[in-house]
Automatic annotation (TrEMBL):
<dbReference type="Pfam" id="PF13439">
    <property type="entry name" value="Glyco_transf_4"/>
</dbReference>
<keyword id="KW-0328">Glycosyltransferase</keyword>
<dbReference type="Pfam" id="PF13692">
    <property type="entry name" value="Glyco_trans_1_4"/>
</dbReference>
<dbReference type="GO" id="GO:0016757">
    <property type="term" value="F:glycosyltransferase activity"/>
</dbReference>
<protein>
    <submittedName>
        <fullName>Glycosyltransferase involved in cell wall bisynthesis</fullName>
    </submittedName>
</protein>
<dbReference type="InterPro" id="IPR028098">
    <property type="entry name" value="Glyco_trans_4-like_N"/>
</dbReference>
<keyword id="KW-0808">Transferase</keyword>
<feature type="domain" description="Glycosyltransferase subfamily 4-like N-terminal">
    <location>
        <begin position="19"/>
        <end position="199"/>
    </location>
</feature>
Length: 433
């Protein structure tokens, strides 16, 4: 089957370094591994013009770049985004008529000012899977600016209502879709992020030597992600500074990612006396992530306390990658993370571990990882102390996490589930149990 993948978001490069780029690449891989032919139409190939990291196994992927034309301001740029989506439809429709077979399925990652997928699918008479990762209109209004609000809302409604399946990364995102676009409610399902368990493997399966307290007494704590306030990276640095473990001065902190907080985090590390222990890797290409993770003992997702009017709607891509690498994960108790790490039912409404669920304040040891109170550097410090002092516990959690993602959370299974929905259901039936 020939699949046309549309990516009209100017902030995401197909071969970029962000988690969104990983999501694109892995869904394409999953479709291709099942024997399907994929062509991608996108606004940009890499994070920036001329900067891209193309994995060897995707070097032959057909990618058609449809750049956004220069605009003098935000309002004009929003209009150019709409024009770009229309050009994408025309190019993809023409491309469908070429090659060995016409397009049989359209897959689009929801982007502001684009209903390209709905238009293309209707023109070709084929199904559309619309992937929704965030309530973009709401995000834009809250964090940025949105001049053509009515157009953004109308295009979102057409994009989602025109889909055969609306695939949302989390239940809060699905709730937003069902509320904002009632016409799309019946075809809306939840498809969490996944992980490529063949690409990201524990150290002992990659040719690296497995690290134990006996063979290597050092302790490395890491973070992977963009350096923005909603990831809470500063809490990790503060936690290491407050840790009480007798060997904490030899701990190593590795921070992988780029973003507006980079310099402030460097400054904070110096102020906390951690400059010599902290390595800032900058942006790490997806192809290099597995190698970086093999050197860590503990991986963190130290999200802050969510705003009262804001659901933690992200699906934890980085956490699935941590688990696939066999690492011990320490994460804040927000969104889906307690369930992913096997502590569901043990957290209160603000993400704090419930009273009586553990012997360490603010810390809950689950079946596959450790949950801590969001934004609480002291709780995170206590969790790190616990794991540094009990390597056997850390090892058990890492093994259990790896086994869980292999069985339940691969990108291949995510793609198979979506294709099964398209193949066996009419739109009105998709969202039903």
């Amino acid at each position: 089957m020939r699949i046309t993948y549309l990516l009209a978001d100017p902030g995401i490069g197909v071969f970029g370094t962000k988690g969104a780029s990983v999501h694109v690449q892995e869904m394409v891989r999953a479709f291709r591994q099942q024997g399907h032919e994929v062509t991608v139409y996108c606004v940009r190939r890499g994070d920036k013009k001329g900067y891209e990291s193309v994995p060897q196994d995707l070097a032959d992927l057909p990618v058609v770049e449809v750049p956004v034309q220069a605009a003098s301001g935000t309002a004009e740029r929003e209009i150019e985004l709409q024009r770009t989506a229309l050009r994408m439809v025309e190019l993809a429709a023409a491309g469908s008529a070429e090659g060995t077979a016409p397009t049989a399925l359209v897959y689009e990652r929801y982007s502001l000012f684009s209903d390209a997928g709905a238009q293309l699918a209707a023109r070709l008479g084929v199904p559309l899977i619309m992937e929704v990762n965030a309530p973009l209109v709401q995000e834009q209004l809250t964090h940025r600016s949105l001049h053509h609000r009515d157009e953004a809302v109308a295009l979102t409604e057409r994009a989602l209502a025109g889909a055969t399946v609306v695939s949302c990364v989390s239940e809060p995102v699905a709730t937003w879709v069902r509320t904002a676009v009632p016409a799309a409610a019946a075809q809306t399902v939840v498809t969490p992020n996944g992980v490529n368990t063949e690409r990201i493997r524990p150290a002992e399966h990659t040719g690296h030597t497995a690290r134990t307290a006996q063979t290597d007494p050092s302790f490395t704590v890491g973070f992977l992600g963009t350096l923005k306030p909603w990831h809470g990276t500063e809490t990790l640095l503060e936690a290491v500074a407050r840790a009480q473990h007798p060997e904490k001065d030899s701990w190593r902190i590795e921070i992988c990612g780029a973003g507006p907080q980079l310099e402030s985090l460097r400054t904070l590390a110096a102020e906390l006396g951690l400059a010599e222990q902290t390595v800032f890797h900058g942006a790490v290409a997806p192809v290099d992530v597995p190698g970086v993770l093999t050197g860590w003992d503990v991986a963190t997702a130290p999200y802050p306390v969510p705003a009262q009017d804001h659901d933690h709607y992200f699906s934890p891509l980085k956490v699935y990658e941590y688990l696939s690498a066999g690492l011990t994960v320490v994460a804040s108790g927000v969104g889906e993370l307690p369930a992913v790490l096997g502590t569901e039912g043990d957290s209160t409404a603000d993400g704090s571990p419930a009273a009586g669920t553990g012997t360490v304040p603010g810390v809950r040891v689950g079946q596959r990882g450790v949950i801590v109170t969001p934004g609480d550097a002291d709780a995170l410090a206590r969790a790190l102390d616990l794991l540094a002092g009990d390597r056997a516990l850390a090892s058990r959690l890492g093994e259990a996490g790896r086994a869980d993602v292999v069985e339940h959370h691969t990108w291949t299974s995510r793609a198979q589930d979506l294709l099964a929905l398209v193949g066996t259901h009419t739109p009105a039936e998709v969202g039903r149990p």
